Amino acid sequence: MEMEDQMESQKRRGISKDELISERTGSLGCVGWFIVSLSAIFTICLFPFTIWFCLKIVQEYERAVIFRLGRITDRKAKGPGIFFVLPCTDSFVKVDLRTVSFDIPPQEILTKDSVTVCVDGVVYFRVSDPIASVANVSNADFSTRLLAQTTLRNVLGTKNLAELLSDREGIAHGMQSSLDEATDDWGIKVERVEIKDVKLPVQLQRAMAAEAEAAREARAKVIAAEGEMNASRALKEASLVIAESPSALQLRYLQTLNTIAAEKNSTIIFPLPMDVISHFMKK
Asked: pLDDT digits over 59-73, tens only?
């Protein structure tokens, strides 16, 4: 907390993070340089043996932050490869630069429209500034995990259930921007945030399913009514065409007989001449 307060006070005075780090890497003082000199003389005198204590190796994906008598020696972390330290006065902390992913535990959240949902997600982040990740926060990984949980609750608490279900990508981008801004002083870069699952209460799921089923049935009835209306219009137009040409009705009759005869059924048809029917219709 003291270190974070110092960062905030430096920001208010307009001092950048690099300038703050340069203040931390200041002079060791007379006593400090005297101890460092004794350590260097001791290392030179016992050179064949102390070489194994002075040379250190870090991997390609790691960096080393060196402390000399409790102060950061350089504004840039060492590595990858071999680097030199003085025994007794120097210590170093290894920082992994690879991208780390972790699952946000399921969080029960009350949305803006007073609906309780259970949401979880995944966050991808990496260390962008090894010195800041060591000097500005005690445990950057753990702090980022806690901040991700809090940010998830804060962001989703301002959204409606409909927005939560339909705009996951926008919510993820908002969380990423908020986390990235908050962890910048810790030397952490948040690369990606994803909402994995949104679990609704069982009663709410049933209510939404019933609502969706009712909406589908209403649309089906509207479509069926529109189909019947279009069919009636087509029949009306067909009747007008047949009325204009009496032979068209005979052709339609023969076409119907052909359709029935093509099917394998036990239907018996008794054809009657159209003249006989027309004779009775005139009476």
From this structure: 999 999 999 888 888
Identify whether the C-beta of residue 118 lies closer than 8 Å to the C-beta of residue 202: no
Whether the model clears a pTM of 0.85, i.e. scores above it, the answer is no
Q: Closest by alpha carbon to 187, among 68, 55, 89, 72?
A: 72
Ordered by start, the domain boundaries in the chain are: 42-96, 99-203
pLDDT, one tens digit per residue, over 6-26 is 445 444 444 455 554 555 555
Q: What class has domain 99-203?
A: alpha beta
Q: What distance in Å separates the CA atoms of residue 173 and residue 184, rounded to the nearest whole number?
A: 16
Mapping DSSP onto H, E and C, the string for the chain reads CHHHHHHHHHHHCCCCHHHHHHHHCCCCHHHHHHHHHHHHHHHHHCHHHHHHHHEEEECCCEEEEEEECCEECCCCCECCEEEECCCCCEEEEEEECCCEEEEEEEEEEECCCCCEEEEEEEEEEEECCHHHHHHCCCCHHHHHHHHHHHHHHHHHCCCCHHHHHHCHHHHHHHHHHHHHHHCHHHCEEEEEEEEEEEECCHHHHHHHHHHHHHHHHHHHHHHHHHHHHHHHHHHHHHHHHHHHCHHHHHHHHHHHHHHHHHCCCCCCCCCCCHHHHHHHHHC
Mention every residue, 6+ apart, whose C-beta is less than 8 A from residue 96: 61, 62, 127
Mean pLDDT for 239-258 is: 74
Give per-residue pLDDT as tens, 156-215. 888 888 888 888 888 899 899 999 999 999 999 999 999 988 888 788 778 778 888 888
Contact 200, 207 (CB under 8 A): no
